[in-house]
Amino acid sequence: MTTIDTDVVIIGAGPVGLTLANLLGVRGHRAIVLEARDQLIDYPRGVGIDDEAIRTLCTAGLWEQIRPYTVPHHIARMVNGEGKVLAVNDPKSQEFGFPRKHGFIQPLVDKELAAGLARFPDTELRFGHKVIGLEDHDDHIAVTAERHTEDGAETVTITGRYAVGCEGGSSFTRKWMGVDFEGKSPSTRWVVVDVENDPIGTPSVYLGADPRRPYVSIGLPQGIRRWEFMLHDDEPTEKVNDPDFMRSLLKRHVPDPSALEIINQRTFTHHGRVATDFRKGRVFIAGDAAHLMPVWLGQGWNTGIRDATNLSWKLTAVLQGDADDALLDTYTAERRKHAADMIDVNMAAGSVMKMKPLGGWVRDRAASALNLVPKWKSYFTELRFKPMPRYVSGVVVDQATLTPGRARPSFKHGKLAPFIDSAGENSPVGLQFIQPRVNTASQANVLLDEVTGDWWTLATWGTNPTTYLTPDDLDLIRRHRINLISFMPETQRAWAEKRYADSPLPVTVAGDTSGALKDWFDVRACGLVILRPDRFVAAASLTQQASRTLVAVVKAGSLTRTGKA
Ligand SMILES: O=C(O)CCc1cccc(O)c1
């Protein structure tokens, strides 16, 4: 038996496990990924990457490698049985630095994620390792895997500080944790067909809410066309092996179904399930191991990447002694609710897709009426129906903590608000911060994350962020390597760079070339934000509240290194 030691053992080399391993590698940790298969899954599954996930891929240093396997602005249209468009999902904004939706080819992206691990001396991907045992000792975990060699089976034990199960819906790790996988698995089956040399050539996504047979038709990169067809309850699954049956499905979509170059055909069912807890002791689950959702908004892949993003910085903070173990409890608190909300929206979208003729008639009329109301129309077009992560508990600081006892003022744009309403609709706390392009003394026209880096940031609008910080605060900022940034109109940058040159700690002045940062601060009545390593807003306040806000974030994040015994 062989025993190996690492920091984090990751079970499963799907996109979530590989992304997590890359994020840990980028931050200098050791990680071993154990994969039961002998190679990565080579058939396409997910087809949509969103802007939040791209931000993570940039942090992992892999976006440039992955970009060639994507197509931007993947518009989705829901059409009825007559091909009439009922709803369009075509968000035009780019608040996080990239188009909101991209189509992609998952196996090629997974391959780049796997290749990315070669950059790190202490991360490793081990194929053919089937996990058969997991033990949580108080100060470490031990994962046992079985490996088949030419001489028979070998047992390998990997010890680490933490284990993360990313091995999909039938997760060994989740079962080991003994948590429930709540929700539903509707019995509806779908057959998916991918073909080369797209015989249609339309670039986007069509969700065919056709009462005769719901279908999906998607234009993907590299000339691939995907179709998905719902199987009726009285159609046995084996029917999809009958070429005549498949041709009958395809013939409504393409003139000559017999001439298609099929590269993949599979059947699947949708699930809407979420684990009751994503953590047990030193063991975590992420991605499909923690939640399964139908495909309708293309969010299964992205929701898993969000888990990896959230968990990776927290593991880093604890592994390098920056935070107590309590920080890791915020992983379930932050990620579970969002995954559950995403499942609900996807299950609802599935019900709309599968409506029978009478329900479909009502739906079509309702959709026509809703599209006449601009507010409702934008609900679809701007992706507002995709629940954005908003963390209300976890590493976030609410207004009551900053100004105890003070009644929450109501803030409306255009009125002076004395204190930010952190719990209100307009509060940025718990939301992802925007990512416009900025200029600094050393970087021109760069995305903001290149300036903030991938750790903590304390930023103010229009002032020097050190002004209201005490010597103790500055010490804390130094210990935690918190980046200090002053956002300025670009016209003010040269002045600020000169003026802030003697600051007690270095301050980067970021020139707001597009006005996006000014607009952001303008409607939120706060002058200071503390951004987490995943670029979510941990706290927002008036600039003069800097010290109190910092202390509150230290508490919410279970940060150590406070310098106080
Ligand atoms: O990214 C999108 O909007 C499409 C997601 C989708 C919808 C239906 C089936 C499927 O495989 C993906």
From TrEMBL:
Pfam families: FAD_binding_3 (PF01494). Keywords: Oxidoreductase. The keyword Oxidoreductase applies. InterPro entries: FAD-bd, FAD/NAD-bd_sf, PheA/TfdB_FAD_monoxygenase. The keyword Cell membrane does not apply. PANTHER family: 3-(3-HYDROXY-PHENYL)PROPIONATE/3-HYDROXYCINNAMIC ACID HYDROXYLASE, FAD-BINDING MONOOXYGENASE. This is Bifunctional 3-(3-hydroxy-phenyl)propionate/3-hydroxycinnamic acid hydroxylase. It comes from Actinomadura adrarensis.
